[in-house]
Amino acid sequence: MEQKYNIVSLIRKKRERKSLSANEIKYIIKAYTHNEIEDYQVSAFLMAAFLNGLNNEESAAFTESMLHSGIIVDLSEIPGIKVDKHSTGGVGDKLSLILAPVVASAGVPVPMISGRGLGHTGGTLDKLESIPGFIVDMDLDRYKEIIAKHDLVLAGQTKEIAPADKKLYALRDVTATVESIPLIAGSIMSKKLAEGIDALVLDVKYGSGAFMKSLDDAIQLAETLVGIGEQFGKKTIAFLTNMNQPLGNAIGNWIEVKECIDAMHGTGPDDIMKLSNLLSGTMIYLGGKADSIEEGIRISEQQIQNGEAFAKWLDIVEEQHGDTDLIRNPEKYPETGHRFELKADQDGYINSMDSFEIGMASLELGAGRRTKEEHIDPAAGIMLKKKVGDKISKGETILEGFTNKADMIETVTDMLRGAVAITSEAPAPEPLVSHICDSEGTRAFEL
Questions:
Q1: Are residues 405 and 263 in the same domain?
Q2: pTM: predicted TM-score of the whole model, two decimal places
Q3: What is the pLDDT of residue 120?
Q4: What are the helix (H) ranges across 22-95?
């Protein structure tokens, strides 16, 4: 018979900085998954864990409990080394939509299970659902059918895969308990380990638009994630990437999909193209289709240039019932009722962009959620016309906003004005990728 506990006593124990046993952690996760304890009680536990941390034993029990809250998918019948990628979340981070078809078109199966927007960051599922008709919710039989047919599937969590994570993911988003290394690590790895992968590439972000604000915290998270992956026998490589400004130019849902379409035609922004090819190349390497990351990058670039990546993208959109006409002709997409511009009030250089504030501004325009139930406007968002280091003249447009919420334009404009700093001198450039972390340790990386 399984041990039961008083949830209030467990909350108090963690609140008072005491360690919970593995059985106590497992009880909380299992009881919440089966609706035996309330949202507000688990919210209190999450906040106590956020403030006081989880030690290594608690973290391991947390990850394992969420992994085994559902089934672990068996994809052994599908040929090849199955590889996925996960980003810890950032503003304008739409890379999954690019690299998944690139890697699959190179012959590496990509069983990608993604999440929704979390706080100020966008979610892959929300971007996919901005494509009319695109279905991300499916059962396991359909999940396996699609990946067997296309070497690719772009899905949300099924009810069988890490159901505890699915519930906790939504709750953390609205209780200010996102930025916790053990909670993030447990959430990411329980979901990824359950989806049937053999190897994993991680994009661990740091900076103003990331959940890890400092590079040191991001390295700690990367090492935690890689350690979990290797512990479960999955080859895992992480890159530490800069989120001190948004990635690419588009922040929203449909406008990010459109930027992905540009990237798959080889015309995306430089940072998008460089990071997509690095992550894709690493996946191709782990998938056994290249002898090195460098060769994988060359294959990734080739798959974009020869059109095979975009053809794979069209195949998967059609398979998952999305409107391929809009993918071929994105200019047909319905526009928002209102658009506005933020203009420079002086000459100079863009010195910095507060990615967090820009992400929150996009949320206020309708591109994100403030509650679990809130509706997302797929066309809302922000398009950057300038990036950090760019020269700008007084009166020149810094960014453009799109919304159907006319009453939010003034508030959001003020937010955005405070998020962009212009100085007389150009700032020192920062690396897009600073470090690589794998089973051999963490070291500096140059892209």
A1: no
A2: 0.90
A3: 67
A4: 22-33, 39-52, 56-67
